[in-house]
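Sample entry was shown:
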Amino acid sequence: MGAVVVLAGGVPHAHDFLAIGDSIAELIRRDDRHADVVEVVDHPDHLVELLANGTDVLVVDALFWRMVGDAYGPWRERWAYSPPEVTRDAITEFVGNGGGLVALHTTAICFDDWPEWGDIVGGSWRWGVSSHPPFGAVEARVVADHPVIAGVGATFALHDEVYGDLFVRPEVDVLAVAKRTADDADQPVLWAHRYGRGRVVYNGFGHDVASIEHPVNAQILTQAINWVRGGA
C-alpha cells in the first residue's frame, strides 16, 4: 500500500487545523490497514510532489479560499488563497487517475474560484446561499447502504456543524443527512461518488478533534479511507 497524505491547514480563526491534522493521522495509524505511511501537510501547494510519488489516499480537512468580503478582512492578507495551476493539475490528475480522496467539513468551502474542485469533491459551498448554524448537537440519519457506513446504525449523534444548501452534484450517492434546525429540509452530510477512475467520500463533519475522534465519525473516516483506496 502507498501513503496517506493529510492536508490540514488554513485560516485558524474557527478551527484548530494543526490539532485536527494530528488527530486524523493518529486515527489512521491506529488502523492496521492504513498504518504504512501517513504524512501531514499544512498547505495545498505541498501536495504537488507528494501526490505524484506513491500516495494512495488524500484526506483533506482544511480551509483555503480567497476570503472575499469585509468579514474576512483581518485574515485576508495572511490567508487568502487561490490554487495555482500546478496544484490544480496535481489534484485533478491524482483523483482522476485513480487516487482516493476523503474530504471533510470545510473542504467544501476550499478553492472557491476553482469550480472543478466542487466536481471532484461532489459538492461545494455557495456564497450567499449555503449556511450553517452555530456549533452544537447534531443528529444524522443514514439513508443508504454502503461500505463507508457499514455498521453505523440508522442514526448517530455528535457535536458539529451542518452545512446546508451546498451545491451538491447530482451524481453523488448520498449516504447520510441531517438538519440545521428542526424545520429544515434534510441536508446531505455524507456522500460517495467517482471522479474519473478515483473514489471520493465527503463527510461534512470534522469541525474539531472531538468530532474526528467521536467513535462513529472515526469509524466512518477509517471505512471511507478503505473504500476510496479500493476496498470493498
